[in-house]
Amino acid sequence: MNGKPTVSVIIPVYNGERFLAEAIRSVLDQTLPPDEIIVVDDGSTDMTAQIVAELVVCSPIPIRYLYQENQGPSAARNQGIAVASGELLALLDADDLWVRHKLADQYNYLVEHPDIVVVWGLVQLCAMQDGTCVDTGEPWHGPNLGCALFRREAFQQVGGFDASLRVSEDLDWLLRSREANLPQTVINNVVLRYRLHDSNTWLGRPKISESLLYALKKRLDRRRNQPDA
């Protein structure tokens, strides 16, 4: 990596008026700001577009707004990755928050470790109490895409997100990245606050187990189709 690598932040959103502004502000408040923010609106019918337009006016960082017909978060992320200009890519869901040092910690790690392609961090759950997100439980590491920083080559090697999956697409991508022996690591820093609320994509949803099993089945099918399996 020659010179100072650029960073693009991609935020997929669908009807995100409740939390989107706060998520974007958590990016703008980074101690190491990115070079651009790309908001991919996946067919929202609420005030999402207006919220982004208002933030564009006062943002010190370029914010690009892209609209597509509703295709799911995987397709929205893939669209953002396709148009992003950064050498390093970060993903943030519209209802989550980054801690202020997130990008700085992971950016510095990738600069210092050119052999690593993806660096992950820890996730802190937080629950809404009287309009404030209060931390709950211990930090953990999982396949939450918002707690990672990717070199662009990660998606060149592994491919994008499976647009047929609307949940568990993060697990599916992580499994494929491991099958591809993608060099990645985890730093022991909390970088993402995952907001628990009544509209979480996976929390308490009846089809989550089915989606997890489907992601795992896909992995088994790939292994069976390997010539030397």
What is the count of structural domains?
1
Q: According to CATH, what is the topology?
A: Spore Coat Polysaccharide Biosynthesis Protein SpsA, Chain A
Counting helices, strands and paired strands, the structural category is: alpha/beta
Q: Could you describe the largest sheet, including whether it forms a barrel?
A: 9 strands, mixed
On the 0 to 100 scale, the average pLDDT is 89
Low-pLDDT ranges: none
How much strand? 25-35%
* Rg computed from alpha carbons, rounded to a whole number of angstroms: 17 Å
DSSP summary: helix tally: 7
CATH 2nd-level architecture: Alpha-Beta Complex
Element string (H = helix, E = strand) = EHEHEHEEHEEEHHEH
Compute the number of strand runs: 9
Please summarize what this structure is:
Helix content is 33%, strand content 26%. It is built from seven helices and nine strands.
What descriptive keywords fit this protein?
nine-stranded mixed sheet, alpha/beta, 229 residues, 33% helix, 7 helices, single chain, Spore Coat Polysaccharide Biosynthesis Protein SpsA, Chain A
